[in-house]
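Journal club side-thread
Mid-discussion, someone asked how the predicted structure for our own chain would compare to the paper's figures. Pasting it here so we can look after the session.
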Amino acid sequence: MPFHIILLILCAALLHAGWNTLLRGGADRLWSMTVMCLAVAVASAAIALCLAPPAKASWMYALFSAGLHVGYNLFLVRSYQAGDLGQTYPVSRGSSPLLITVAASVFDGERIGMGALVGIALISGGIISLTFTGRRLAPANLSYALGTGCFIAAYSVTDGIGVRLSGAPMAYTAWMCALWGILMPAVYIGLRGVTSLLTPRPGFITAFIGGLVSLLAYGIVIYAMAGAPMGAVSALRETSILFAAAMGYFFLGEALTVRKMLACAVIAAGAILIG
């Protein structure tokens, strides 16, 4: 893999951990996430209108993926209600490659190699370690972190099929993100009303920029996959787990124990082996 691609992927991992840190540090995370999605919708729509539309066969998958992204947003917000960034983020990000690998084996007959088996064992062990505080189970919000991982796996598989049918990966991605960015505010309005969304609040600009950062991080990964193996790109991207643990410590004042760092490193190593 070219060195500049490696640097770009690491930059994307840092950006992804960064916008999650912004979300975790916000006072009203559901509102912050919705504003981020508005930013994604505006930027994605502007890009989509400049590209030829994807094939009709892919539109169903784009819409389904947009819905799954909304579920991902809701579960991510809920997982951050009480859980540390350095605890919930590794569980959600680390569980998704594990789930995708297992699902591919069960439903599509893909064989799991020895490296992937070791990766699954490492991720499972790391997640189990993070679910305990001393000898007690950690907060129940970790179930939402695992649910977030399920949504990541689901929309990853959906987008994988949709992109192949689209004939235009960038156009598919832009339209899917635009649909997702529109659906999330609609869900927010249904839950809290339009006044809650439109009332000016401090932090709007920060959240809006966070949405643009999340889109940039995703765009970098797509660009990297055009010139490097997808598995390697996805695996290197999971180094964001380590960035998130560090950001939680430096910017959110979260505890950074030796066990937590080791668990995050083990999960990241497992994701890399699977990739």
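Post-session note: Strands lie at 132-133, 136-137.
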